[in-house]
Write a structure and sequence with these properties.
One of its GO terms (biological process) is DNA repair. Its cofactor is Mg(2+); Mn(2+). The chain has one domain: 4-Layer Sandwich (Deoxyribonuclease I, Chain A), CATH 3.60.10. It is an alpha+beta fold. The chain is built from seven helices and 14 strands.
């Protein structure tokens, strides 16, 4: 079972690149973030033509998450997180696919720090922690997948000193991520590559991709049940170099079938 995550940074403007990558990589399940489109503009027919069913939670101009699957129609289990009825951002969608609970998330960026956007990021992380704890209690295979907008360690940025005042690398953000891990989740990339610099995002500015000045923002957190099925993980870095590509690259893991 091959599961991928891809911050597409505007799905309709990059649909050609998405379809090309789907054809080449052939993932079974894909979590998408930053759709930047309203629900009625989601390109469901184009995806269905290449074999992917989809569920999505869109928002005009910002945010938006979706799950694609080659296993047929998707059993959606949740959209949004509890404990903030005033939060209108489309940042979380969840489904049960091929025996696995898949949570697709787009965590708030939080910049500038300090400020209300950073406070919102930390509150959102607390709400994610509460839901993650609930998922652990079910005893099912679970993966929380997506753009976390957190660089957990110094290995996850090309220049740590540059990001000391950035919400992506603030101690508060990293501590909240560590708390998730400590409660029973495994960072799949770090499980397989504990000491390597691995990036999933390269800014459009200053030839960041050409210089390999990257960040690791896109993560797979697996519960204990699913961790034992982890086989491999890869960043499709070359996709970031395609014309008119997202500033993120697709990332995927491969799991043993149950």
């Amino acid at each position: 079972m091959k599961i991928a995550t891809y911050n597409i940074n505007g799905i309709n403007g990059r649909i050609a690149s998405l379809l090309r990558w789907l054809g080449e990589a052939q993932p079974d399940v894909v979590c998408l973030q930053e759709l930047k489109c309203e629900d009625h503009r989601f390109p469901k027919n184009a995806l269905l033509e290449v074999g992917y069913h989809a569920i999505w939670h869109g928002q005009q101009s910002w945010n938006g998450v979706a799950i694609l699957s080659r296993y047929g129609e998707i059993q959606e289990t949740r959209r949004g997180l509890d404990d903030d009825p005033d939060d209108k951002h489309s940042r979380y969608i969840e489904a049960f696919i091929n025996g696995v609970v898949i949570g697709c998330l787009y965590l708030p960026n939080g910049n500038p720090w300090p400020g209300p956007k950073f406070d919102y990021k930390l509150r959102w992380l607390e709400r994610l922690q509460a839901h993650a704890d609930k998922l652990l209690s079910f005893g099912l295979p679970v993966a929380l997948i997506g753009d976390y907008n957190v660089m957990p360690t110094e290995l996850d940025t090309y220049k740590p000193v540059k990001y000391l005042k950035n919400a992506l690398f603030r101690p508060e953000s990293r501590e909240a991520f560590r708390k998730l891990i400590d409660c029973g989740w495994t960072d799949a990339i770090r499980e397989l590559y504990p000491d390597e610099r691995i990036y999933t995002f390269w800014d459009y500015l200053r030839d960041a991709y050409g210089r390999d000045a990257g960040l690791r923002l896109d993560h797979f957190l697996l519960n204990e049940v699913l961790k034992n099925r982890l086989l491999s993980a890869t960043v499709d870095k070359a996709v970031r170099g395609w014309e008119h590509s997202s500033d993120h690259a697709p990332v995927w893991i491969e799991l043993k079938e149950n």
